[in-house]
Amino acid sequence: MAQLILRLRHWPSAFHHHHHFCFLFPLDHLHLFIPSQTVLFPQDTRCYRQQSTATVPSARRNISYRFGGLRVPNAPAPYELGSSDTSSDSDDEPSWKSRNQKKREAQRAVQWGMDLASFSTPQIRRILRSASLEEEVFQALMLVKRMGRDVREGKRRQFSYIGKLLREAEPELMDGLIQATKDGDHSRLQALSASEASVDEDDGEDDIYEEEYESGDEESLEHVSIATRWLDGLVTRDNGITNEVYSIRSIEFDRQELRKLVRKVHSIQEGQSSVGKDVGGGEADLIGAKKSLSRFLRTLAKQIPTSDL
Questions:
Q1: According to the UniProt record, where is the region Disordered (predicted)?
Q2: Range of the domain at 46
Q3: Percentage, residues of the chain above pLDDT 70
């Protein structure tokens, strides 16, 4: 009896907890929590014998149990799977952009729009054509150029919209075109352009519309829009536009002079189409004829009462 009391004094206090644990949980499942090589309580011979004699089902012998989940032996670790997936997808997926990088790109595009709006209409045309940008960008720039200095919030929103349109442009090309335009470096502009011939060919035609767009402070937007629509319709022989212009009765204008200007444009166009190329300054003659017709139509549009527009 004395030896039994002495043994009980030296046993850890946790013995009673683990002793009851052996009876609360079936020993058939004890191997899920304790490795088979570990003997927790050698003093408790009954608990040890029952645990050691417990058989492990054959379906579970090759499975390793760990805290938080189970994994088949020889399977790659989670970090190995992640690294392999990342390496395989890195070549297929585009590089991820941070929020700061996207913000910088948006600010750069807005600055492009501000720089473009400070240029003349032919310069804007040249840059947009060289950068392969759509007509929508040009129209948005023309609108912001017509806004007065007091329209601050409207300009801010318009420049933000222009920045969205310019966000897909090639950064190096846009920076080069804008800087070359500021410096007046025409040779560099031609080098950056997709086609030098296309730039030189369309410069004169852009001058026809330059006065219309840049005189927006003096003329209303409605007058400029109407004159431009008339010019395009008369040049392309649009019957609807032709009837609209010649049927104006609210004001008096020289219809004979208008017919003369239109015939001159058409005759030059027919001469070019018969030859097939620009010969003997025919392109310059066509540009001059269109300018004269454009000035006549703008003057006519300004005289029309606003109620008749």
A1: 76-104
A2: 1-54
A3: 56
